[in-house]
Amino acid sequence: MSNSAAQPDIPYRTLGRTGERVSAIGLGGWHLGFKDQAESLSIRIIRSAIDRGLNFLDNSWDYNEGASETRMGRALRDGYRDKAFLMTKIDGRSKSEASRQLDESLRRLQTDRIDLVQHHEIIRFEDPHRIFDEDGAQAALLDARQAGKLRYIGFTGHKDPRIHLYTLDVAREHGFTFDTVQMPLNVMDAHYRSFEQLVLPELIKQTIGVLGMKSMANGIILRCGTVTAIECLHYALNLPTSVVITGVESMERLDQALEAVRTFRPMSEAAVQALLARTAHAASRGEFELFKTSSLFDATTTHPEWLGDEPERLRRLMPS
Asked: CA 318, CA 320: separation in Å to the nearest integer?
């Protein structure tokens, strides 16, 4: 991957201990595969983002039944793949299902190597045990890394910071340290079931790359009427994140993301506290962070078959 497309006014940050240099703002993949959005517009957004200095591309095997990855793969033709740091996610918990999903992602993205693959939606305390089982998804990703299909491994989740911390503990018990962790970081998270307060310090301690997401919670946070989109992005950028991933479904939203990263300056403690004071009441019960308090954002709850079978050795323990 080359950073030759980077522009001086787009700041780059280091992705944890990997040493990779990635744009402080990343392009979210979910919005790019919407059925009511023309594929040509999605491709234009991706290529324009790269041309204008954003090199971190987010995606997932399950986004829009694969349309997000397929469109991104087409956008990355004609030399764009070499300018991007490409990330996707897989939902499989078993080794066989994770391998199948990863190979499908590689085909859709039209590449022989993905820079970062993450275990997606770690939202249950049993998820890390399934991943790190001897026949679990982690074994598939380690094999794929050895084969050159991927470079780095991380995990994502949006439900509860304690599940993130537990996943880090289970990984440590298996002698593994993740390269990246993705989680919600926004102006309301600080007040309720906070990833910023509980998980972020641990990631910094372990030099794990921090991927911030849901800075506006798909626009839901903006409905509280106390903060603007630029303020939301600036708050997330002010945290020690490697990348703040934001959804972009139009050229106007891309312009907004670029404006946010170009105008960002480190915030004073007084400015941070003033912003948090404005969101404290609205954030107190998690009503604007539905990914924490409902199952509306839980794709694997709707499609448990994506996870694959439980390990056979565990099923044998069940009474007949």
From this structure: 6
